[in-house]
User: Fold this.
Amino acid sequence: MFNEFFSRQDLLLIKPAVLLALFGCGILLTDLLHERRHKYLNAVTALLGLGFTGVQLALIQRAMSAAGYSEVSGFSGGLVVDGFALYFTWIFLIATAIAILFSVRYLEVENEHHGEYYALMLFSLVGMYFLATAMDLITLFIGLETMALSVYVLAGFLRGDRRSNEAAMKYFLLGAFSSGILAYGFSLLYGLTGSTNLRAVADALVARPSGDPVVYLALITTATGLLFKVAAVPFHQWAPDAYEGAPTSITGFMSTAPKAAAFAFLLRVFLVPLAPLRPAWEGLLVVVCVLTMVVGNLAAISQNNTKRLFAYSSISHVGYMLLGLVAGNETGLKGIAVYLLVYVFMNLGIFTVLVALRRKDIIGDEIEDLSGLFFKNPVSAVFMLIFLLSLAGIPPTAGFLGKYFIFLSLIETRHYVLAVIAVVFVVVALYYYFRLVVMMFMREATDPERLNISPGVAVALAITLAMTLVIGIYPEPFIRLAAGSVLVPFR
Amino acid sequence: MPGNVPITHYLFLSTALFTLGVIGVLARRNIVIILMSIELILNAVNINLVAFSRHLASVSGQAFAVFIIADAAAEAAVGLGIIIAMFRNRGTIQADELDLLKW
Assistant:
């Protein structure tokens, strides 16, 4: 009946998103059947949904490689599944799965265990899927909003907690504001080029005479919106507040999957429609990168709240990743892909430990709460140490690999000054990461309460640690995966 | 005939509306008014899209505008929900009284 509108291929391409949306709705329905103490079944359903989506994605991937296609497009070019989209979708799926694993016990402790939590996670994943695959301004915008609106609600999920309310409020206001600016940029791009397809936009921008002020206005508004979404300085103010006030499990989720999605979005927009304007945005991006590294790292030093500290640390990581885009060669883009993969695992590892610190009557998000962790629970303290070393970029952990490619690409493209600044701030980062290490290993424990390691948390810890070490020690297959995801900049 | 009005007029109108919205978000303290200013920005976007759509005789701008309207409604629903949750706990909707987490 719909044959004249959709082909079978179109439906195949959105199948992962359809599955996720259906499972999300399914959770909302079956949630009503579960008793209070059986709410963990919602998490099982969500993981099942992620599993089915993963299988579907693998089928698409196999069909593509069997037919020898490097990319498949659908919906008249509005959706493209290529190496880039597949790579990022895998990152989103894995990050969400780990976040679901460590959420179960946390929500029980908070006494806010509702099915909507998992449903919203799946809905935000639908948005992320479209952010990675969309080739059209409209699809990109709707994907962004699908993701963002779900995450706003998740940030305020602890309805009775004032800090959670406040985090959701600030995140929502600045997020909606930046979406508005971005939409304004998109509307100008459409007006300048007469098309919403990203490649057609790029073609039309190449044809325009340079120096048109409206082109610059479109570039500035679009870039501002994108940089807001990845929390780059000077558009980062929402991140520390949203990260500190949100439920810890959601902070872990927010700082990984939606961040990777925002990055996929940023890369797609900068490398396809805005690629002809590279001379105009490159200088701008250099300034943003340096500011992001400086502010992110320096502000992290004085934080006493762990979640806030990791908010600033994640801002500084965004600075490093953007450097790959400044370099802009294949090594740099591969570096961003590797960095994001590694970052997702190590950051989720950190937040798994932080989630385990939340027990009845203990909030566990001040740095003091980590004190003496080694004496209470040596395993998680050692795990935390490895994640922190990885975040700082010390070999043989995975974090080193991400930074290695970024620095290499800077050297290759003769950005020596930027490379030196980046290395200097690695040392600063070591300082504040080691404050946590000192707390864990050299202070007496302040509260005798044991850690709350649920099966889900244990599995999440095992996966994140294994990946942090495996990627660091045997990186070849992951580098090859990342190389397959590199988006060819539009020329 | 609306066709007689040149496209620049629409652009000036939308730019003015956009600027008003941005000023509103940055300067006002009442969260409901900030939310209204965000809607103003989205309406500036819609004027742009519809004007361009007519100017270029291409329909995708109107499709985009319809999606933006839907998105604005969804955003208002989520935003008002968060405002109500906050008002229940704090009894205020002033942005400068959101000070549990330092800005």
Summary: The CA atoms of residues 43 and 90 of chain B lie 31 Å apart. The helical segments of chain B are 7-27, 31-56, 60-90. Chain B touches chain A at residues 14, 18, 21-22, 25, 31, 34-35, 38, 41-42, 44-45, 48-49, 51-52, 55-56, 58, 60-61, 63-64, 67-68, 71, 74-75, 78-79, 81-83, 85-86, 89-90, 95, 98, 100-103 (CB under 8 Å).
